[in-house]
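Chain A, query sequence.
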Amino acid sequence: MVIYIIIINIITFSAFAIDKHKARRNQWRISENMLLLLATIGGSIGAYTAMKTFRHKTCHKKFTIIIPLLIIAHIALVIYTKVNL
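Chain A, predicted structure.
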């Protein structure tokens, strides 16, 4: 489980970085839905870190609200899983 969380966060962070790079060059972009999906399936910390590092998607309410909520949900899920094992 820990390895999955590390890998999905690296992938999510990288996706945000690639999208920011492509945005600067006016190239094909990674869809917002894909970025949110990566955050939802466990990459919320990577998404948040990338948003702050690259100042990417920080003006989009969808991202500034959903990503922190996903972090809280993921932390709650980890705590719930640890307590009930």
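Residues 2-83 form one domain. The chain has a mean pLDDT of 94.
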